[in-house]
Amino acid sequence: MFLPFIYSLYTYSLFGDFLLPICLELLFCGLKKLKHQIPMIGLVMRERGLISRILCPKFGGYLTFAVLEGGKESASGQPTTSDLLNVYKIRRIGTDTRIYGLIGKPVGYSKSPFLLTEAFSSTGVNAVYVPYLVDDVADFLSVYSSPDFAGFSCTIPHKEAIVKCCSEVDPIAKSIGAVNTIVRRPDGNLVGYNTDYTGAISAIEDAMRGSHANDSSASPLSGRLFVIIGAGGAGKALAYGAKEKGAKVIIANRTFDRARDLAMSVGGDALSLAELESFHPEGGMILANTTSIGMQPNIDGTPLPKGTGLAGVALT
């Protein structure tokens, strides 16, 4: 009988985030090679190492580690037993399980692992969805190039940078200049898509139509003023979608040059955030915040300056 070999990569904790891809690559390769020789427990520390605790059954780990309840962690990045069992469905994870996940910074707030892993389970798909806390998206994708990692979602702040990492980009995503969904083909090539614009715009249209959400008439956005705060990947997607629906687009951004460039690409107008203070809304206008302001942990934050004429307009 073998005693398990505990291999915990504390090197990562000591020397910083830049060692994470190396640590995880060594860990997963080591687990695969040793699983038929000696039981091995492989863990990487801190939030970026969370996936090593979730995916250990996939790569032959002897066991993983979790805490019984939240707030009892002895180190960051430790999930609860409830999360492993109920969110990530760890008992369903095996060597043939496909891995999907969310690339971003931050990602800890996201509900996607719960929603999508549950969806996989309910539909009989052998897959798991995990969070990837990523600093450099190009470096990340160069390490996670195995077919085991079948696809990715992408959020702030990488939606624009990841376009250059894709072997192929869908024409709409290319027009937007941002990607939020990446699929790995059997040949290993990454194909980028943008579903932000359809998801966000259709949700706004449905809310405006109310009980007539399935009405196939012209878009209720046609001719409306559509003000977008932010000129990053999400802002680009909404600007593209609003333009396609016939809305009058205005882009407001902290950096005016980025607002102007995006506004020009969709035939709209640009404002600085300072100019937004004196902006007077039209009746029925749409105001969309696509910045990180208001996200966890500062959920009460708002990009709207106090006292602005837009203070009473609901943010989407």
From TrEMBL:
* Molecular function in Gene Ontology: 3-dehydroquinate dehydratase activity; shikimate 3-dehydrogenase (NADP+) activity
Q: Name one GO biological process term.
A: shikimate metabolic process
Q: Name one Pfam family in it.
A: DHquinase_I
Q: Which residues form the Shikimate dehydrogenase substrate binding N-terminal domain?
A: 102-182
What Gene3D superfamilies does its record include?
Answer: Aldolase class I, Leucine Dehydrogenase, chain A, domain 1, NAD(P)-binding Rossmann-like Domain
Matches recorded under InterPro entries: Aldolase_TIM (IPR013785), Aminoacid_DH-like_N_sf (IPR046346), DHquinase_I (IPR001381), NAD(P)-bd_dom_sf (IPR036291), Shikimate_DH-bd_N (IPR013708), Shikimate_DH_fam (IPR022893), Shikm_DH/Glu-tRNA_Rdtase (IPR006151)
Protein name according to UniProt: Shikimate dehydrogenase
Organism, per UniProt?
A: Colocasia esculenta (Wild taro)
At the highest ranks, the source species' classification is:
Eukaryota, Viridiplantae, Streptophyta, Embryophyta, Tracheophyta
